[in-house]
Amino acid sequence: ASPPSPSFDALSEELIRLHASVGQRLAALQSFDDGEGGKHRSAEATGVAPSAAYSSKANLRELSQTSRLLDRAEVVLDSLEEASSDDDDEYHVKMWRDVTHALRVEHCRAMGEADHRRTSTAGGRTRTATSSLSESTPTGTTAPQPNDTEERGDVLPSGRAAFVPRDELFSGSSSRQSSSSVSSSVSSTAARLRSQNATLERARRIMADTEDTAMSISSELGRQRGAISSVRSRAGEAAGMANTGNRIVRTMQRRKRFPWV
């Protein structure tokens, strides 16, 4: 037999955990080293370009893992949509789908920044090499000039573009969102996730308290049942003794009235 499908609540908790993990990873990638062992959440605090946060291989691996988490969130969203049973469930699915979309947009922006950082660095090296070549070229000769694409350094040896233009990363309204609006969206998303996590934690505590109270009531009822059973047993014994006494009295009265019996 196939295993039972996860409940709406179980899927909701999994999606909230996925959103929280993605938000934490993206927030961590926006921290900047100050060179003295400290970190800042703002590029202005260190003068480091935002794209520098995405340039290392470790951070690129983080972006790849974040992409997989977002893919899993999409799968869970589809399962939630199938498991929804009323308008309230459908409202939550729509809200969570908007959150997932906002996180996906921020992830795409981070990927674009990473590509731009790498190509800018490669472009700087290309321009330096071009300047050296120009200085070493004898007077009267023309040094080969790299075209605009090569000078930017955004073409791989295979001829495939390494830097995807920002407009190609996003579609529809997403392509028109500015970095500030995306950051604001992610911040509000993170705030909603924290609020949802706090609500879930409060609900868990209330459920735990309710279970403790129910167990206490059950224990007290058990003790009361024991006491009631003991009283009933004693009442039965007393009734038996009363019946025996009544029989003895009736027998004695009968013997007085009928001595020959």
Automatic annotation (TrEMBL):
Question: Which Pfam families does this chain map to?
Answer: V-SNARE_C
Q: Where is the composition biased (Polar residues)?
A: 133-147
Q: Where are the annotated segments for Disordered?
A: 33-56, 110-197
Give me the stretches of Low complexity compositional bias: 120-132, 171-188
UniProt-recorded name of the protein:
t-SNARE coiled-coil homology domain-containing protein
- Species of origin reads Odontella aurita
